[in-house]
Amino acid sequence: MKIFILVDALRSDYISQKNTPFLYNLSQKYYYIKKIKPSLGFCERSEIISGLKSEKTGFFTAIGKNKQKSEYIKMSKSMSILLDMVDSILKKIPVIRLFNKNLNWNKAFRKIINKILTKKHNAKMSSYKIPYRQLRNFYLTEDEINHFSKKFFNQSSLVNKILSKNISINNKAWTYLGKKNQMSENEVKKYLINKNKSQKNEFIFSYLGSLDVIGHKYGPQSKEMENELMKLDLFFKKLIKSNLNSTIIILGDHGMKTIKSYFNIEPHLKKIKYDLGLKINEDFNYFIDSTMCRIWIKDNFKKENVINYFERQKELTENGAIISPKVSKKTYGDIIWLANEGVMVYPDFFHFNKPIGMHGYNNSLLKSQGTCIIYSPDGKNINIENENLSKINEIIMKDFV
Ligand SMILES: [Zn+2]
């Protein structure tokens, strides 16, 4: 049996004698890649499965623009305008603390509407905090196609390569956006521990997301993170001790950075819209990811004006810069502005509270990198300093399947 565990946001330097004594020991005795560098963006899962960097997969951020593919294309204009109005009124009501709980009207409203809309439109994509007027443009990019279908990167897919060796695939404990009946962290742990009773020739894809959640909420340097790492270390000790005849691949896909400052980009977008006479959905759209702002503009002349604005405005040049990744402009934006390490764009289209940690920065930076430890019964002891996340596919096939 082979168990692949994607540990979301397991940062390279989390592995230490003090934080994770078991994993540290394992890294010194078995196959260890200290630093794993993902492609820029937020589509690590397709990079792992396809074995290709984001410029080759075409997947860059989780959400892209394509009206034909949007699940919300049929949403009525008047309804979306009305919802945006209510949303903006509720945003102005301050969050109060009542009976030890934060009372956030805007969050409550968005959650209820989200439930109604996803049900009505039979949508996989949540409406998150995307302005309702813009919702009908957007769709899930990497999660549009099932990563375990034959269609997903046919030749280079890790899934297809494993299947071709007559090994069955088990993805019950895996994850993707919009997944219904997602297993909880504890359910995944229990599921994997209990798996040792079966001796099937099986490759298990599984996912543990708690480090990402804790990293965003409390930060990578927090006491909560220390506790979570300790829990994770104990889990892997238990899992490996009861699966000595299995191969266990532990992969951290990216890191986590403590946020140093928050930057509100909305006033700039409002100013651009007003100054250039742009109209939402007609000739202008934008998307605010936590570390990026992406803009679509029809008119080339106005596009130049916006680029000039972004390159001239002190606040924008101090907090980030325009980048030109080799990805589809039509899908990901004519203009892509990336925040500097430690700057979080807030408000964004995802968060109701200010996070403490974030990822999605320039991935050559150390704190943005993940790690990989592979236990195998034959005890391969190899120590590699750096590797790209896209290479994991090849490494697994060459040495562990
Ligand atoms: Zn995350």
Task: Produce the secondary structure layout.
Blueprint: E1 2-7, H1 21-29, E2 31-37, H2 44-50, H3 54-57, E3 63-65, H4 77-91, E4 96-98, E5 101-103, H5 105-120, E6 138-140, H6 158-163, E7 168-173, H7 185-194, E8 202-208, H8 210-218, H9 223-241, E9 247-252, E10 257-258, E11 261-263, H10 266-275, E12 284-288, E13 292-297, H11 300-312, H12 314-319, E14 320-323, H13 329-332, E15 335-339, E16 343-345, E17 357-358, E18 370-375, E19 382-388, H14 392-399
Parallel strand pairs: 1-8, 1-9, 2-19, 7-8, 11-16
Antiparallel strand pairs: 2-18, 3-6, 4-5, 9-18, 10-17, 12-13, 13-15, 14-15
Helix pairs in contact: 4-5, 8-9
Question: Outline of this structure?
Answer:
The protein has 401 residues and is α/β, with parallel strands linked by helices.
Account of the 3D structure:
The protein is α/β, with parallel strands linked by helices and about 400 residues long. It folds into three domains: about 1-60 and about 140-260 and about 360-400, Alkaline Phosphatase, subunit A; about 75-140, no CATH class; about 260-355, Gyrase A, domain 2 (2-Layer Sandwich). About 35% of the residues lie in helices and about 20% in strands. It contains 14 helices and 19 strands. It has helices at about 20-30, 45-50, 55, 75-90, 105-120, 160-165, 185-195, 210-220, 225-240, 265-275, 300-310, 315-320, 330, 390-400; strands at about 1-5, 30-35, 65, 95-100, 100-105, 140, 170-175, 200-210, 245-250, 255-260, 260-265, 285-290, 290-295, 320-325, 335-340, 345, 355-360, 370-375, 380-390. Strands 7-8-1-9-18-2-19 form a seven-stranded mixed beta sheet. Strands 12-13-15-14 form a four-stranded antiparallel beta sheet. Helix 4 (about 75-90) packs antiparallel against helix 5 and helix 8 (about 210-220) runs antiparallel to helix 9 (about 225-240). The longest helix is centred in the middle third of the chain and has 19 residues, at about 225-240. It is globular, with a radius of gyration of 22 Å. It starts with a strand and ends with a helix.
